[in-house]
Design a protein that fits this description.
- The complex is a heterodimer of chains A (495) and B (170).
- Chain A is an all-alpha fold and 495 residues long.
- A two-stranded antiparallel sheet of chain A has the order 1-2.
- In chain A, a hairpin with a 6-residue loop joins strand 1 and strand 2.
- In chain A, helix 4 packs antiparallel against helix 13 and helix 14 packs across helix 20.
- Chain B is mainly α and 170 residues long.
- Chain B is built from 6 helices and no strands.
- Chain B is 70% helix and 0% strand.
- Chain B starts with 9 loop residues before the first helix and ends in an 11-residue tail after the last helix.
- Chain B has 2 domains: 76 residues; 80 residues, no CATH class.
- The chains are: A mainly alpha (495), B mainly alpha (170).
Chain lengths: 495, 170
């Protein structure tokens, strides 16, 4: 406790508060603009935080702000123009847009903001209470357990993020293979560098992320065309009463908990949490026929769950080093870029980084509610920005973002190449999240597998006789089996 | 100059994903990648070391190769079952061509930055890209190109001290 409270309070320093608030504002903007996802927002801002020279906790605080803001921001476009700003807001469209058509846009957005805040706070409190316990348990891990953990993380994202499990698995292997480029983590021998000194350190995380998520999305948006139909002009704004909001307290609590739980499962993102919670609210309600017709409980269930999943997704990321979704995969790489090794040791070695994250998570939700309610009218105008000017701007920002980290044009070429690869993957149904996750977990899997096999008591049965390793590997196999037989309605890639 | 087709082409995207030919070609590429990784890992193999640098890439290749073959076989089976050659999708082709042209423009932009410098290259890229995507009002194009170029220059060069390539490579 001597370490926890002072470090937790670091998040409430003026600098970090400013970063969280600006992160939330940017996140809401990114989330509200259809086609720009939370992952893209966090990816583009990551090099920016490094260029600013921010330390790990400040950088993470800003990225958390973007994450929380973007997940809420997606609901604004979903409600106003029937287009989910992010996949997480796909369930919000179902009742949000019918409310707008009835002239209740303001009420719908205010309900979404309050529900997002409640869900987000539930998950932030859960994160604060349970993460240290889980990390203490994970301190028992040795090389075989870490290897099994890496396989577990990989199996979860591969199965849930892909509509086609074979393509998901192949994406994962592609990521694992490109992660072997550069110096061997144990012997220090260059691999697949082809005499190119730029490849000795491997492919940079950030250029690859920018390519797969920003450039690929730009090319995809252009290739799909866009419609100017469905724009709502001059939406009316009327806020809900406190009494009305209070009447939804059980839906809020249940959805927040569902979101936190689902978010904490590695690989299950905010979008899945929102749909599960929406279905649950509909199943329990006395009037399920009202769902899809502009039922406020539909918005509340979806929004409390998708923001609830943000804190949930941070739990495995911080305690085990396994990201909960695509955004936390990027945030994990932010920690790696800062020279930190995510996982249970992070709690012991860098409490000054971990505990402010909990505080920043709560602060981000307060900022999201404040900015979310105050900026609705402005955001409603901005989301009508013409993509003809927006997409070239994202291209320039992505080029500078990939250049800024090492002042290297080589990184720009990596980002552009990965953009082309990412576009092809997106077009032909290969998910990008497993590539990123494999790049993060690949070196961890390789290092721990090789070191486990070099242990004096190493044997091929070692992975089955050690209880934690066996459980993790069984869970990984179960996840793949679940992936084969899962419901199609949950197959939404969390990007 | 190509302008964006303002009609969404989602159904076509679904057809693309189901294209067995795409799976066959991508499967072949991944198989080639797995074989290349396996063979070229011999260049850095240290046989005297147990589980040396070549161990993990070869292990990955051993999984990736057969999985790529499964993708190819699955594609061939779907194509065979359809009994008709895949027809090229013409719907949305214009937008896909535009995405390709945008990619080429982006490559030229990246190549132009070290030669022309950040400001001229970015001004040209944004103007050309906006026109390509269908905007025709010169004043709007000019204002947006100038604002974005100089705003990003100010943020990165002046505030963040990122040394962007100067005018004509200076």
């Amino acid at each position: 406790m001597d370490l926890i409270i002072p470090n937790f309070l670091l998040a409430f320093s003026p600098t970090i508060m400013c970063l969280v608030f600006s992160g939330v504002a940017l996140g809401i903007l990114f989330g509200a603009l259809p086609g720009l996802t939370a992952t893209m927002g966090v990816t583009l801002l990551l090099p920016f935080t490094l260029s600013l020279g921010l330390d790990a906790q400040s950088s993470m605080a800003m990225l958390i702000g973007i994450y929380v803001g973007a997940i809420y921001g997606g609901s604004i476009a979903a409600i106003l123009i029937c287009t989910p700003g992010t996949p997480a807001a796909a369930a919000t469209v179902l009742d949000g847009f019918p409310m707008t058509q009835r002239g209740e846009a303001g009420r719908a957005i205010a309900l979404a903001a309050c529900a997002s805040f409640t869900g987000g706070m539930i998950s932030a409190i859960t994160l604060t209470l349970f993460s240290p316990l889980l990390s203490r348990f994970a301190l028992r891990f040795s090389y075989p357990e870490y290897f099994a953990l890496a396989i577990f993380g990989l199996s979860m994202i591969v199965t849930i993020s892909s509509k086609d499990i074979l393509k998901g698995v192949l994406s994962g292997f592609f990521g694992l293979l490109i992660a072997t480029i550069g110096l061997d983590p144990i012997a220090g021998i260059p691999r697949f560098s082809f005499g190119q000194p730029n490849l000795y350190d491997g492919l940079g995380f950030i250029p690859v992320l920018i390519g797969l998520f920003a450039f690929a999305q730009v090319f995809y948006e252009i290739s799909q065309g866009w419609s100017s139909e469905g724009k709502t002009k001059s939406p009316r704004f009327s806020l809900p009463s406190w009494q009305e909001f209070k009447s939804y307290k059980f839906t809020l609590l249940r959805s927040g908990l569902i979101g936190t739980f689902i978010g904490s499962l590695p690989g299950a993102g905010c979008d899945i949490a929102a749909f599960v919670s929406y279905n649950e609210a509909k199943r329990i309600d006395k009037h399920p026929e009202r769902f899809g017709q502009g039922e406020p409980k539909g918005i509340i269930a979806a929004e409390a769950a998708n923001n609830g999943a943000t804190g949930g997704a941070m739990i495995p990321m911080l305690t085990l080093g396994v990201p909960g979704d695509a955004v936390t995969a990027v945030m994990l790489s932010a920690l790696v870029v800062q020279g930190l090794q995510p996982g249970p040791m992070l709690f012991q070695e860098h409490p000054e980084v971990v505990y402010p994250i909990f505080g920043a998570m709560m602060l981000a939700n307060i900022a999201m509610l404040t900015i979310g309610l105050l900026s609705v009218r402005v955001i409603a105008r901005i989301i009508l920005v013409d993509k003809r000017v927006l997409l070239p701007t994202i291209c320039v920002l992505s080029v500078i973002g990939s250049y800024a980290l090492q002042f290297s044009m080589f990184d720009v070429w990596v980002a552009i190449t990965m953009g082309a690869v990412g576009y092809g993957m997106k077009r032909y149904g290969f998910p990008a999240s497993p590539v990123v996750l494999a790049m993060i977990l690949g070196p961890m899997a390789e290092r721990n597998l090789r070191q486990a096999l070099l242990l004096p008591d190493a044997s091929s049965l070692m992975f089955l006789t050690r209880p934690i390793t066996a459980v993790l590997l069984i869970l990984a196999i179960s996840a793949i089996t679940f992936g084969l037989f899962r419901r199609p309605s949950l197959n939404v890639e969390s990007e | 100059m190509n302008a964006i087709n303002n009609q969404p082409t989602q159904p076509n995207a679904t057809q693309d994903r189901a294209s067995p030919w795409a799976d066959i070609i991508i499967g072949a590429l991944l198989l080639a990648m797995a074989l290349t990784a396996y063979i070229s890992s011999g260049a850095f193999a240290r046989e005297e070391l147990n589980f040396g640098p070549q161990f993990f890439p070869r292990l990955l290749s051993c999984f990736m190769g057969p999985l790529s073959v499964i993708l190819i076989v699955r594609g061939i089976r779907i194509q065979w079952r359809n009994h008709s050659p895949s027809k090229p999708h013409n719907v949305g082709l214009k937008n896909k061509r535009l995405a390709l042209i945008t990619f080429i423009t982006l490559v030229l932009y990246a190549a132009g930055i070290p030669i022309l410098g950040y400001i001229p290259a970015t001004l040209m890229f944004i103007s050309v890209a906006i026109v390509m995507l269908g905007e025709r009002r010169p004043l709007r194009i000019a204002i947006w190109a100038i604002c974005v170029t100089f705003a990003l220059y100010f943020v990165f060069q002046r505030i963040l001290n990122v040394p962007l390539p100067g005018w004509f490579g200076s």
